[in-house]
Design brief:
Blueprint lengths: L1 E5 L4 H12 L3 E6 L1 H7 L7 E4 L5 H11 L3 E4 L10 H20 L4 E7 L7 E4 L10 H19 L3 E7 L1 E3 L8 H10 L12 E2 L1 E3 H14 L3 E6 L5 E2 H11 L20 E4 L2 H6 L8 H17 L1
Helix pairs in contact: 1-7, 4-5, 6-8, 6-10, 8-10
Length: 303
């Protein structure tokens, strides 16, 4: 099976790429050559398409020659800038890509969405909930989702939308919550967290990559799947785990008064659908995942 991937050198994409390599898929990746060589030094069998999504006319003939059966679309330019400018740009680039994929008879598109699409602060979130976008980023994601579905219906393609919850793990950018806390604690400082009592659904990146691989193999038609741990973890507890793994014999003490339960963010994924239909569920506990992430970052600091 031939798989074309965008965002394959990003945080999640590198793990998805590694799963594809391990299973001997015929892979084509959209990126610049230097980035491919840096991240996948010994994989000469990967088909490189040089360029980016804003210049699709310059490389679409190479994609047509490759003739992918599946596209895994993970790229999103500009993060952490979620402004109108970047949201519209990503919307247009994604729809242009889908049009090319339809023209070359690609059979399946798998896209990464976000748990933020739900726009809810509490409770178990399932795929059937109504989506009401409240900002440019979410409006763009929702448009890509709905228009992608319609294009797939018209062209007899499979279109799978994934809603990712709080993905973390080795290699995540330093501005993200868990790496920021690890870096702060490792330098001997106390992290300043404005919402230590909030609870989020943290899911380990290797589990996420395995979910994409299983969706590639087993999904059909037009569908949506949550990818999360299925439970929420308090940020304060994450900090305590990091303290433990950094050999700090203390717990995180916050000076922020605990808000009322009604004001605390606490949402998590309902993963029953992906578990029942695809057979996926996370294998890495939050304790194990944080330990692996701390070790990877501390080792990097030590070098």
């Amino acid at each position: 099976m031939k798989v074309f991937i965008t965002g394959g050198t990003g945080f999640i994409g590198k793990y998805v790429m590694q799963k594809l390599i391990e299973e001997d898929y015929d892979i084509s990746i959209l990126c610049i050559e230097e980035r491919l060589k840096k991240d996948f030094k010994n994989d000469n069998e990967i088909h490189l398409i040089k360029g980016d999504l804003s210049e699709i006319k310059e490389w679409e003939e190479k994609l047509k020659t490759f003739e992918p059966d599946v596209c895994i679309h993970l790229a999103w330019e500009g993060i952490p800038d979620y402004s109108y400018k970047y949201s519209v740009k990503n919307l247009i680039m994604s729809l242009n890509l889908f049009n090319v994929l339809a023209d070359i008879k690609c059979k399946k598109i798998i896209c990464s969405g976000s748990c933020w699409e739900y726009n809810r602060k509490k409770g178990k979130l399932d795929e059937n909930m109504t989506i009401t976008p409240q900002n440019p980023f979410l409006a763009a994601k929702h448009s890509i989702h709905t228009l992608g579905q319609e294009l797939a219906r018209e062209n007899n393609m499979d279109f799978i939308w994934t809603r990712l919850f709080y993905v973390y793990g080795p290699g995540q950018k330093n501005h993200s919550l868990i790496p920021h806390i690890i870096k702060t604690v490792s330098s001997g400082k106390k992290p300043e967290i404005k919402t230590p009592y909030s609870k989020n659904d943290f899911v380990y990146v290797e589990d996420v990559a395995r979910a994409f691989l299983m969706i590639l193999k087993k999904s059909k038609g037009i569908d949506t799947y949550n990818i999360g741990s299925g439970y929420s973890t308090q940020i304060k507890d994450i900090i305590d785990m990091i303290y433990l793994n950094c050999n700090f014999n203390k717990k995180f003490i916050t000076k922020i008064n605990k808000p009322s339960n009604s004001d605390i963010v606490n949402f998590y994924a309902d993963i029953s659908k992906i578990k029942n239909e695809i057979g996926w569920e996370p294998e890495t506990s939050i304790e194990e995942g944080v330990e692996k992430t701390v070790k990877s970052m501390v080792d990097k600091f030590d070098r």
